[in-house]
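C2 domain-containing protein
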Amino acid sequence: MMQKVSRGEFSQKENSPLLGGYWTTGDKSSSTHDLVERMQYLYVRVVKAKDLPSMDITGSCDPYVEVKLGNYKGTTRHFEKKTNPEYNQVFAFSKDRIQATTVEVVVKDKDLIKDDFVGKVTFDLNDVPKRVPPDSPLAPQWYRLENQKGEKVKGEIMLAVWIGTQADEAFTEAWHSDAANIPGDGVGKIRPKVYLSPKLWYLRVNVIEAQDLQPKDKGRFPELFVRATPHVKNVNPLWNEDVMFVVAEPFEEHLVLTVEDRVEANKEEVLGKAMIHLQSVDKRMDNKPKKETKFSSRIHLRICLEGGYHVLDESTHYSSDFRPSARQLWKPSIGVLELGIFTDAYCVAKYGQKWVRTSTILSSFSPKWNEQYHWEVYDPSTVITIGVFDNSQLQGGDDNKEAAKDLKIGKVRIRLSTLEANRVHKHSYQLLILQPTGLKKMGELQLVVRFAYSSLVNLMYIYSQPLLPKMHYLHPLSVTQLDTLRHQATHIVSTRLGRAEPPLRKEVVEYMLDVDSHMWSMRKSKANFFRIMGVLGGLIAVARWFNQVCHWKNPLTTVLIHILFFILVMYPELILPTIFLYLSMVGIYYFRFKPRHPPQMDVRLSHAESVHPDELDEEFDSFPVSRPPEIVRSRYDRLRSISGKIQTRVHALLSWRDPRATSLFLTFCLIASVFLYVTPFTVVVSFLGLYSLRHPRFRSKLPSPLLSFFRRLPARTDSML
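Structure:
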């Protein structure tokens, strides 16, 4: 049963990890891993061996190298019948787990029954040199092999042994001691990796007309349509309608267009086919029309690759990139985002086209990655997403696809505009996940983030520019088109990354891209409704305060408002300066309450703490729905009961649906126009202000005549079934 968690456990905490770098006055350390704690490793690079003795009766040697440090042992591949093998392999041993004082490099001869000892080299750990980038790599040296008694024997081996950190260039390619029990093909699945999303473009196809079609049945009028592979079917060929696809570089696919005749209900006849290689399609950077293309006088097309759009594979609310597809339209970067990751199973971070995956720490509930990554930043209004997952790819995932899914542990989003520039933000974020049983805390993720800009002028200039590329405004796409194209884009991205080695799993990519963010749920609707109410809360608070002023709840305040009102009436040119001065003072007042750290997932804002179990069941239900009809009917009834009833009466003032009310309103407008023409404006405003601020003894508890008149107007609800 899920354990109840107090609200305090969901709060963000500032941490103080031991960072690898340091800050000096006005500058920072030049270390490449200055945001994370330095973790020391013993590195052993086995380059090659030479002049190895013959060990078999055939006079051959099948050598391999074994690196031993205490209970840890790593081996190279072996070569058959070769006395001068080349290995070029690196071994890394975490210094925190070292329980020995020496490291042995042993050369052995592989045999069917028992491997033969050839020779070894031993190093005392106290004599091993230390290396910290940007120092140059340690040059490997030749070492003479020794036997078990320490005597020199035939054969030499080239080695480099040093103590370094995770910033070392050899870290990512090295065999690690924590992977000693992982099969060779599984080691790559727990190592850190950087992925790049495919570069996506919109493909616009406009079918203008079809000519010289020859249907088999001449006696009937053909029912024609054009089919474009792979996603869209357009049922009118003459027709000048744009069809949009998402395609990815290097444009190896073909666009196949077929003109078909629907002979019967479920039978189509192909009248012609056109195959277009995407590499031959022109690229358009603006909204200028492209030239038309004809294929054997049969189908007339207008086709182009749209480089002026940004292909949305994420929700626009928390997108990590807004650049157009065409690189020629990219603006220079405005800064650099650096991320240091400290804790939990394995992490995936996405920003722009670059994805990073951290190492998988095996059999640990409190792991430390201490890995650092950086991205170029082109827009401060973007969001970096960090997800945490449990690696299930090491447990026979190929045989059981369901069991092979990497389990979601939680996700963190950080908007760059909420980060103070050139400051190191060190915080511990709660990993929260909403499950069918309710909200659950899965752990904590310690992050160190720094956003550094290159030019303050360029950064501030970005705030005056449109969020999306200009083609989204000059030639906008419909909401339905964007939804369909985003589905195509996420499918292409997940497929491409799933073919990488090691693969980034489909469930991981879809969780990071929030593929199901468009799905409706009662919980999300409530959350968005209260967000709107929160925005209107300021206006509501001002209205309540003004009502108290009008009812003389605080006589001193009301008198001061009277004085301010008459000043503004006598000097109307002060109205706008006063408003902006007031807003400035409010902003200065709230400066002391400004957030000191980036926001994290808000359980109260998300309405995730007190969500009804049936609403959770509805949110996690599949689409189309899989629940019994009676449950679906109860959900529909609940939705009907919650739906608001909005009655609009404003249009009834002039619609003459109530002729007497419209006559009264028109008469009032004519009289008011004459009165306002002959009466000075200051007198009118003074009268209205004094009337609104009159003392409660001059007020009536009954509605005013104007409000009563408005409430009596007919609403369109009378005509609704």
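The mean pLDDT is 77.
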